[in-house]
Design a protein that fits this description.
The complex is a heterodimer of chains A (about 120) and B (about 325). Chain A contains 4 helices and 3 strands; from the N terminus they run αβααββα. Chain A has about 120 residues and is an alpha+beta fold. The chains are: A alpha+beta (about 120), B mainly alpha (about 325).
Chain lengths: ~120, ~325
């Protein structure tokens, strides 16, 4: 892949990653590294803590996620993230926007491959 | 720290996590103190939990270089803020007394990416007009048309012409007052009632002295400052716009004062003077920006990509 294409894929992913994190937290309450682990199960949106943690910071600042400290069986207490009411609404709105977008893009890409 | 990590224990050195946090923190100077503390607190808790599983070194390594991490944090948090943030508010009105630089003034006066027309004033109390948003709403520019780069593409002659406008207004104001000085009475009107007739008079020295102090003097100061080589084109255009506003205001008020000095009542023209001042400030920003956009388009059309395409076809 050329660097330019890499960049473009990274731009796509950045927007999608936030939605992916909201979706994960919509199902379960998770702590930082669990989010990274779960994402790694989905090729295409896997990401390191270096990308995920700044987004967690942003989401908690905007109030979309709330955090709770919980004791861990080993080591220091962990900070768990879950969706707030506002976060849940945001997830629904973003999911709807995503579906519209992806079906539109999908249709266009179909034409591309058919035409080629 | 209750538990000393193996890495730190090794040679009594600071832990890898602490060093990383310090490194990231040093690169977050653009954030407010509270934001920085939140970010570092959050990062520390995440890192300590990760370190428990894979060790400090691996946990830190997984996050990438501190500089990149810090830039991602800035990026993520700045998507959050909508428009410029004032220092605080009094009775719902924004205020900011941190002092204004030419750069910051120009960013407020012309920000096409911020759709809000009224933005917090850079210095003092209240709001100021974001002419960039006005131009976007009037469909005179597109929001993505005028990034910082466009300002640097404005032809120098256009910038000089824009700066000549407020200079001309200031000169006209001084000449108008100087030429009519001998025929002016000692007391001149300084306030006009709702009816349009003057209802307050002051000595002509004080009246015109004050007017010059708030309109001509700042114009001269600004015009001298923008001749410095370190001043950006954007700063110069913003200065032309802001002093153009003052110039029209000063000339208009001087003209009203002189016209009504002998007891006449030219009507309440203050709203007209103010509107003319706003239009002047707007035009002095818009015209140079349009010329900059045009210069960029011209270059883009004869740029290497276009040539390559032509070569292929």
């Amino acid at each position: 892949m050329t660097p330019a294409r890499d960049d473009r894929a990274a731009q796509f992913r950045k927007g999608a990653l936030e939605l992916a994190i909201l979706a994960l937290l919509g199902r379960d309450e998770l702590y930082g590294v669990e989010i990274v682990d779960r994402l790694s199960a989905y090729p295409g949106i896997e990401a390191t803590g270096g990308t995920v943690y700044p987004l967690l910071g942003r989401l908690s600042k905007s109030g979309a996620v709330v955090t709770t400290w919980r004791e861990s069986p080993v080591g220091p207490p962990r900070k768990y993230y879950r969706l707030s009411e506002g976060g849940r609404r945001e997830l629904l709105a973003m999911a709807e926007a995503w579906r519209d977008l992806s079906s539109g893009i999908e249709a266009l890409l179909g034409e591309v491959s058919a035409g080629a | 720290m209750p538990e000393v990590s193996p890495v730190a224990a090794r040679a009594g050195e600071t832990s890898v996590i602490d060093a990383y946090l310090a490194d990231v923190g040093a690169r977050l100077s653009g954030l407010s103190r509270a934001e920085r503390q939140d970010t570092l607190g959050e990062l520390e808790s995440l890192l300590r939990a990760d370190a428990e599983r894979v060790g400090e070194d691996a946990a830190v390594r997984a996050l990438g270089p501190a500089a990149e991490y810090a830039s991602r944090v800035c990026e993520a948090l700045h998507l959050e803020s909508e428009g410029p943030t004032p220092q605080g508010t009094i009775l719902g009105m924004p205020y900011d007394f941190r002092g204004a630089s030419v750069k910051r003034v120009s960013e407020r006066l012309w920000d096409t990416t911020n759709p809000r027309v009224f933005v917090p004033r850079l210095f003092g109390l209240g709001w100021t007009v974001n002419f960039g948003a006005v131009a976007v709403r009037l469909h005179l520019v597109r929001p993505d048309d005028a990034p910082d780069a466009v300002f640097e593409r404005i032809p120098s002659r256009a910038v000089s012409a824009a700066l000549a406008v407020p200079a001309a207004f200031a000169l006209a104001e001084v000449l108008l007052v100087a030429l009519s000085w001998s025929s002016l009475p000692d007391l001149v009107p300084v306030h006009w009632g709702v009816s349009g007739a003057p209802d307050d008079w002051t000595s002509r020295i004080i009246a015109f002295g004050l007017l010059g102090l708030v309109t001509v003097v700042p114009t001269i100061v600004a015009l001298v400052r923008v001749t410095r080589a370190s001043c950006t084109q954007r700063g110069r255009v913003a200065a032309a716009s802001a002093t153009g506003f003052l110039g029209v205001l000063g000339l208009g008020i001087a003209a009203m004062t002189i016209a009504d000095a002998d007891g006449g009542a030219s009507g309440n023209l203050m709203w007209l003077v103010l509107s003319a001042a706003f239009v002047t400030a707007f035009v002095l920003l818009l015209v140079p920006v349009r010329l900059g956009v045009r210069a960029e388009w011209r270059d883009a059309l004869v740029g290497p990509q276009r040539r390559a395409k032509k070569g292929k076809g």
